[in-house]
Each structure stands twice: as C-alpha cells, then as structure tokens.
Amino acid sequence: MTLERRSFLKLLGMGAGAGAVGAVGLAGCASKPVAVHGKKVVVVGGGYGGTIAAKYIRMMDPTLEVTLIERNDHFVSCPFSNLVLGGMMPDLSKLTIKYDKLAANHGIKVVQAEVTGVDPVAHTVTTSKGVFPYSRLVLSPGIEFRTDEIKGYDENVTPHAWKAGPQTLLLKKQLEAMKPGENVIISIPVAPFRCPPGPYERTSMIAMFLKEHKPGSKVIVLDGNPDIVSKKGLFLKGWKKHYEGIVDYRPAKKVTEVVPGGVLIEGLEEVKGAVINVIPPQKAGHIAHVAGVVGPDKKWCPVNPMTFESTIHKDIHVIGDSSIAGAMPKSGYSANSEAKVCATNIVNLMNGREITELSAINTCYSYLSRKEAVSVTGVYRVNKEKHVIEPVPGSVGVSPDLSETEAVYAESWLRNILTEMST
C-alpha cells in the first residue's frame, strides 16, 4: 500500500534547497562527512511515535528499508492506564499491543533489542543484536525520570506508575492493600511532563476507588505547579460533584524527599500517607542522551519544527515526549501527529522533494468517574517568523462539561489509535 500525502497536511513549499536529500541547513549541525548506507531508515522506540513513523514511511515509499528497534516485544499504553487504578479495567491487556501485524502488513523489520549506542558520524545504531546502519534515524524514546532530584526515592517502594506496566500493577496492589481511613499521596512534578492532564485524571480514579472501597480515606495531591495545568475547571467541577471531602488538592507543594511513611515538601513540611505515588520530574528518554541530541538544558531535544530533525545532529529526528515541540503537549496523540509529519518529510527529503509544512492535532481524554470523561483538543502550526510550533488561534479548547458522550468518544479514540499503531 502506498500513500503519497496525508490529506490533513497542507502542502506548502519551504524554499529552494530544502528539498535536496540531506541538504536541510540546521544551525549547530555536525559538518563531518558521513558514510552512505543507501536508503535505510532506523526507528528506535515502538510506542505512540515510533510505530507510526515506521508505518507511514513504508506506506509513502515502499522502496525504503525501515527497521523498528524496540527493547520489548510489546507496548503498553500509558494513556488510560489510570483506569486500572480506578478499577475500571481489570488489567493492562486492553492497553497492550504487539508488533507482528505491523511488521507483516508493511514490510517493517522489527528487532527486539537494547540500543547501546548511536554514532551520528558513522550513521550507525549499536544494539544488543548487532549494528544497524541508517540514512536517517528516528528516535522516539519517551521519557526518563530525574530521580536524583528527589532524595530517598525508590520506585519499588513509592511507584511512579508513569510508564504503564509493572509499576501500574504495583500501585494498584498497594491501593488494594491499604486500610480504610488511610490516605494516598500523589506528587505532581513541575511542568513540562508527559501527559499534562494525567495526574489529575489519576487523582479522580484513585478518589473513585477510595470512595467505593476505602471509606474515610483521602487522596492528598501535592502539586509542584502553582495551579492545575490542564482542564482545571472540569477537574475541579468533577471533584466537587463526585469526591467532595476525598480529594485534598494542594498547589505549589514541590516534593523533594521521600521519608518513611511520607514525603517532605521543599525539605521542610512533612505529609504522611499509607500509599505514596511520586511522579518524578522528567527528561528525554535515555537513548536521546546516548545519541547526544539533548539540548543545553540537559532535559529535552531541540528539533527543526518542520521536520523534527535534531538541531544538534543531522539526519537524526526526534519525536514524541523527548522533543521540544513548542506548544504541543507531551501526549500520545501529539507523538502520533509528529510522527506523521516527520515521516512525510523524511520521505520528501530522501526523494529530493520539498518538505511539507506542519499541521498537527492533539486530543487528550480524561475520565472523572466510571461514566464521565472530558477532553482537550488543539490544532498546531509553525510560526515561520519565530520558528516554533504554536496553536492555531481559537483551536484549543476543552469539552463544555463532564459527559458520558465524551467517555464513549474516549473509548473509541483508544481503540482506533492502538489499532493504527499495531496493524
């Protein structure tokens, strides 16, 4: 199956010279000569961004050899994993996909291996199963945690559950084991972090669990930010409607240390809890640091907003949570959109065509109760003068109220996007 263009992308020329293979001028790029290995694209990371990049590159140009490298033989979606904590999903099976259909349907070579090195000069990726040369490399490595900023932190004791999988199940087990009347602590890092509405949806789901199973218990939310960073009005309305007296939200409370039975705020104020869910501050995924594409802030990866090509190393593209994508939030749907734009322009560049202007969308759903959800949606473009991604005026907005219809939309969104990633 081939696909020349996605209908949602505006086709605008980006100027002479931009279309030649490898000729995009990027400030700060390495200028050393590189080896040529033919038309090979390597994608590292099999999540929301990586699967889509690999798929759409092959769909738009079947002559390109595409290799997807992922350490696991499956992927578990972080979006909707809060529903496991609330008891709305019995386990993670509904959130888990495999790669066999994706590989077979599109001729993608899927390699389950650990990436140990990237050589941006030689254009090679070193893994536990050998060395893979590339013409262009796509990194979609997600996030890592800055746990060194929280004294005494141990994910085996105070699970973050911010990467869905065993951590999710550990936190769920701790919630089930706590006694009625005991409290849960959720610690939210200072933004930016993966999935801005996620901590507040988690608050709702844990509050629902406590209301149904642990009478007298509360969830104490210690937010390092001065206020709720996404869908504020809707979350406050939902908490008042469903969890009055159960949600204890405290803004501007940055957790800096974990102590026995509690946490310390700025090393001074102690808060006690039976279950402690610390979501640590975050940075680009490990392989982005190995590849040397993390910027001066030592956290995130600067990219060309048109192509998502690194501004540090030529021919390496970074998409998803690790990239600095302007106003686009670090979400699964953002990664999906960025992957399609990145794939389109990789194919353009490798075929000597002009690159396509970014036109991307994001939608995030959050559950407030078993039946009600809310959403936020936005459309994004590149401000050519500032060379940054910004929202299209008037395009960003939230759903008008808590709604059972939004919950239906949310379930459909999950089913569709996981199917797109895995087939």
UniProtKB/TrEMBL annotation:
Domain Sulfide dehydrogenase [flavocytochrome c] flavoprotein chain central, residue spans: 168-280
Lineage of origin: Bacteria, Pseudomonadati, Pseudomonadota, Betaproteobacteria, Nitrosomonadales
Species assigned in the record: Candidatus Nitricoxidivorans perseverans
Matches recorded under Pfam families: FCSD-flav_bind, FCSD_central, Pyr_redox_2
Family matches, as InterPro entries: FAD/NAD-bd_sf, FAD/NAD-binding_dom, FAD/NAD-linked_Rdtase_dimer_sf, FCSD_central, FlavoCytC_S_DH_flav-bd, FlavoCytC_S_DH_flav-bd_sf, SQRD, TAT_signal
Flavoprotein keyword on record: yes
Keywords, comma-separated and alphabetical: FAD, Flavoprotein
Domain of life: Bacteria
UniProt-recorded name of the protein: NAD(P)/FAD-dependent oxidoreductase
Flavocytochrome c sulphide dehydrogenase flavin-binding domain ranges (all copies): 361-421
Domain FAD/NAD(P)-binding span(s) in chain numbering: 39-158
GO MF term set: flavin adenine dinucleotide binding; oxidoreductase activity
Membrane-crossing segments per the record: none
Record carries keyword Magnesium: no
